[in-house]
What we know:
With 213 residues, the protein is of the alpha/beta class.
Amino acid sequence: MxxxxxxxxxxxxxxxxxxxxxxxxxxxxxxxxxxxxxxxxVIANVAxxxxxxxxxxxxxxxxxxEHQASANRREHDGKVLxxxxxxxxxxxxxxGYMRLLSPVFIAAYPGRILNIHPSLxxxxxxxxxxxxxxxxxxxxxxxxxxxxxxQLDHGPVVAQAAVPVKDDDDEDxxxxxxxxxxxxxxxxxxxxxxxxxxxxxxxxVRIQEPADE
Length: 213
């Protein structure tokens, strides 16, 4: 994203498949004024996603677009795009959304889809990143916020946070510490996005500080 800082509040959507802890972190950060934007809608591809109840409790509009009700990924994504347009979402945030987006979806929101992944990409893409980190014996893991392209966990990296891997870590312990870092990092990236601080050049994303900060 380039250009001047926004003057009108943006509207971000969050796509989830499960408990939605990162979604809640973003919604709460926006409500507290740390993100200069409003949560437009939370969409789940699973009717029983726990995060839907939490979003409703906070008064955020929700929608369910079950992927199993569609013949293919393109058809499902078309239905999700309809909901996004209905709610005037200008940015899409994936938060534990266990679906690979179709080219049609990517083309509808070019440079306006973010994802958070629990590893320091390009290391350990895909599911079970924390388990992969432990199996490889790495000493540092963490999380990555990146723009989404048509490949899995592949788009330009916006920001990363490192989390040490302790000798006595298991998957649950490491996942919990990485999740804490995810909550901080994702909200900060959205703040920067809506302030117009992110400058993308190919695969490089630079955070541009305004002259008066």
